[in-house]
Amino acid sequence: MNTNIVIGVDIGTTGVRAVAYRNGSTKAYATATDEYPLFTDQSGAAEQDANSILASTIAVITRTISLLGDEANNVKGIALSAVFHSFLAIAEDGHPLTRLMTWADSRSQIYLDEMKSKTDSERLYHRTGCPLHPMYPLLKIFWMKNNQPEIFARTKWFGSIKDYVFQSLTGKRVVDRSIASGSGCYNIKNLEWDKEVLSLLSIDESRCQ
């Protein structure tokens, strides 16, 4: 029997779950969950603390490994998944400059018509797979550029909660294509950051990866 164990971690909007599976089996050998708050107000903000999510992620991984007992020595890897369309401004030292803007944050709605006037929204949708909508990081970055220009200028990377957790756990900055494709900034035809979108946002490719 294959004794190798992989831990799957799913970072959601309300909490994070870790589940340990043996390769080739659908049986969960150990599992742990943790929750974290969502901060909302009348402005349309729907934010979370990225460091709290990171701490919860580490906690559920640690608890899951602990529950495995002697089997913990057979853990060969950790697979990470995360909720789509989150947005985080990250400083050069790798720390967040803001709270995490979740998919539910609607403050950028006020710039929807302006953005539609600046680009062909149908062509944009066909290139990126994402319609112009406040859910997507594209419009959130534009909101930050106009409402938090100092933070916008200091931001080294515009990322997601998955990028931030992965970088914190491994020391490597990686953006996978699934997360990129849900940003509104990634061209799903040529598998590159969309040059027209980057120009609209006044950022270059290095700030997305």
TrEMBL record:
Its EC number is 2.7.1.30. Gene3D superfamilies: 3.30.420.40. The keyword Acyltransferase does not apply. Residues 5-205 form the Carbohydrate kinase FGGY N-terminal domain. GO terms for molecular function: glycerol kinase activity. Keywords: Kinase, Transferase. It comes from the Bacteria. GO terms for biological process: carbohydrate metabolic process. Belongs to the FGGY kinase family. This is Glycerol kinase.
